[in-house]
Amino acid sequence: MKTKQNTSHAVMAQRTEGRESLDDFPTPGWATRALIEHVVGPESPRGQSCLEPACGRGHMAVVLSEYFREVQAQDVFDYGFGQVVDFQTAKLSEGAFDWVITNPPFRLAENFIVKSLTIARRGVAMLVRTVFIESVGRYERLFLPHPPSRVAQFTERVPMIKGRVDKKASTATGYAWVVWEKPGNGQTALNWVPPCRKALERDNDYIQNPVTPEKSDAKVIPFSAVTDKRQSDFFQLERLDRSQPSTPSTPSPDPPSPRRAS
Question: Across-strand partners of 161?
């Protein structure tokens, strides 16, 4: 007898990954733009720096570069974009960046948030499954001592496919942006991200290995003199003075990028 798959919402909303999984579910570009346009406001990141500590192939970092003066991208695995760094063990100084924004591995999300709160001067934003805000344990460990400023629930589904972006994908999983803005007042506001996919989606959002757009208010500078071609997309962004013509910039040499321990 053939067993029928249970496709109920409760079952389909579960996205179970093994403990050793990289949880590689790239973020569609419009979902990142929604954070800036509808949650924190497009004026908020202007002239500021941002760390994307789980960048994958760069889909979120490239979109963040449309808004921030500087974006640094890294990941524990070498996807060919950003610096290879284990965020959990990396030594980053307190207040090293204005913002930390990412779509964290689900099972490590609490650790990412707590560490990000010490690194960020102005705010932390995490894209998580809506079920993340549930559970007594997480409330006691995370939300009680560190109440977010707001939880912004997507009214539309945000399709995320393992290992790739796909414009035609669908999902039963709900997602929300959970945001900590500094200084906080200890209160959490519930907001909704209005329907915005059609307005914020771009054709190049679905390139599997994106690059920083050529037409940008920002000047892209290689992070360091890295010879590995796969590291060449690790970038810093410096806002161009519109009154001055851009000139090529030569990056100062930095020590070799740390590698993930095997």
Answer: 164
